[in-house]
Automatic annotation (TrEMBL):
This is Probable imidazolonepropionase. InterPro entries: Amidohydro-rel, HutI, Metal-dep_hydrolase_composite, Metal_Hydrolase. GO terms for molecular function: imidazolonepropionase activity; metal ion binding. SUPFAM superfamilies: Composite domain of metallo-dependent hydrolases, Metallo-dependent hydrolases. The lineage of its organism: Eukaryota, Metazoa, Ecdysozoa, Arthropoda, Crustacea. It catalyses: 4-imidazolone-5-propanoate + H2O = N-formimidoyl-L-glutamate. GO terms for biological process: L-histidine catabolic process to glutamate and formamide; L-histidine catabolic process to glutamate and formate. Pathway: Amino-acid degradation; L-histidine degradation into L-glutamate; N-formimidoyl-L-glutamate from L-histidine: step 3/3.
Length: 418
């Protein structure tokens, strides 16, 4: 994990021509010193160096493609560490209710919110869900995201949770974006169950079936998630589910201390959770516990903005050594799939600096998903996943709000322009 405050944030590579059976990304800076990035046929970064050196070194190699990024900036592909991308049934009708003052829990308790989306998602076929997911993921990619965490959680029963996870598997096979899957059967309490019954359902039915399919190689689930929240799954129920997930070999990455301070973070840290999300209501003890582990804090500015929550204490977390990552939290409540907008919100609403949000949306987000060896920075041995910006300074990505197609010139995924 690269801790935010120490990070070297902008790796603007400058370059000239180079070779081998490879793709080359080039950026030329005004002072004329250039760097080349060599991406091999398998899509990994094979070399990075000054133009003159690289020119000599790769003189006799065949270059499949040269991408000329002269005068532009090159960044690692963005990583979105928290999304709910598989669902049918948007909630545009709830937006005006929220603007009029209804809280997240008011809508949830009235049987709307997640419940509305669960009804629609249960009715949708795998193909319908896949088509919805595909469109969303391709737009994320166009907004610079090359690795995304995606949760189940709108099925809330074995059949429908597995349907969602299968849809994510299909996207992994068919689309040029990497996905880390999370089983979130405990995302809400189904209307006809108590939280205790829902917990038992996850423990005795959903999780065992997910793990059976995982063993057969039909699913590749990385993490387990719970909406640990007052009025949803309490601390004990969340702990039981997370422990069972851990025993089954999953990473722990869950919703903690979002709406009410219930010390979910302390519980998660005690279990060794790799990441925890939201954290608007984290306590000082929670911050200390996350720094010691360390556990990655996945901050979700869209949700805090839309629900007008207290800002999470990001500055305190960074100062005290908690690695901070960012996620879009794309879901029917927070319909945002653009990480550059998320980065902008994190700067303006939470006081993060530009280098901090870049680190949080690349290497730290990769670390939240356990993918820091392959994603999150431009280094030899990692995936050749790059953003080439139509701008001489990378900060334009965040500064120029809401017109991202103009700024992102090319997204390169494993050496191929996508
Ligand atoms: O992260 N808090 C729980 N999960 C989502 C919301 C999902 C939904 O409302 O559909 C979140 O904000
Ligand atoms: Fe979420």
């Amino acid at each position: 994990v690269r801790v935010v405050s120490d990070a070297d944030p902008c790796r603007e590579y400058l370059a000239g021509p180079a070779q081998e059976n490879c793709t080359l990304a080039i950026l030329e800076e005004e002072n004329g010193i250039g760097l080349s990035i060599i991406i091999d046929q398998e899509g990994f970064i094979a070399d990075i160096g000054y133009d003159d050196v690289m020119e000599l070194k790769y003189k006799n190699h065949l270059v499949e493609k040269i991408i000329d990024a002269s005068g532009r900036s090159v960044l690692p592909g963005l990583v979105d560490a928290h999304t709910h991308p598989v669902w049918a049934g948007d909630r545009v009708h709830e937006f005006s209710m929220k603007l009029a003052g209804a809280s997240y829990m008011d809508i949830y308790e009235a049987g709307g919110g997640i419940h509305f989306t669960v009804n629609h998602t249960r009715k949708a076929s795998e193909d319908e869900l896949y088509n919805l997911l595909k469109e969303r993921l391709m737009r994320m990619l166009a907004n610079g995201t090359v690795l995304v965490e995606g949760k189940s959680g709108y099925g809330l029963d074995t059949e429908n949770e597995i349907k969602m996870l299968r849809v994510l598997e299909r996207a992994k096979r068919e689309l040029p974006i990497d996905i880390s899957s999370t089983f979130c059967g405990a995302h809400a309490v189904p209307k006809n169950q108590t939280a205790e019954e829902a917990t038992q359902n996850v423990l005795t039915r959903q999780l065992p079936e997910v793990m059976r399919l995982q063993e057969l190689g039909e699913l590749h689930v990385d993490s387990i998630d719970v909406f640990c929240e007052k009025g949803v799954f309490d601390i004990d129920q969340s702990r039981k589910i997370l422990k069972a997930g851990r025993q089954a070999g999953l990473r722990l990455n869950f919703h903690a201390d979002e709406l009410t301070p219930i010390c979910g973070t302390e519980m998660g840290a005690a279990l060794g959770a790799e990441a925890m999300s939201h954290l608007e209501e984290i306590s000082q003890e929670g911050i200390t516990a996350m720094a010691v582990k360390p556990s990655v804090a996945v901050i979700l500015p869209t949700t805090a903005y839309l629900l007008r929550l207290n800002p999470p204490p990001v500055r305190k977390m960074i100062n005290q050594g908690v690695p901070v990552a960012l996620g879009s939290d794309f879901n029917p409540n927070a319909y945002c799939l653009s990480m550059p907008l998320v980065m902008n919100l994190a700067c303006v609403l939470f006081g993060m600096t530009l280098p901090e949000v870049l680190v949080a949306a690349t290497i730290n987000a990769a670390a939240a998903l356990g993918r820091q060896e392959t994603n999150g920075s431009l280094e030899v041995g990692k995936y050749g996943d790059l953003l080439i910006l139509n701008a001489p300074k990378w900060e334009h990505l965040i500064y120029q709000m809401g017109d991202i197609q103009q700024i992102i010139g090319q997204v390169v995924k494993r050496g191929r322009i996508v």
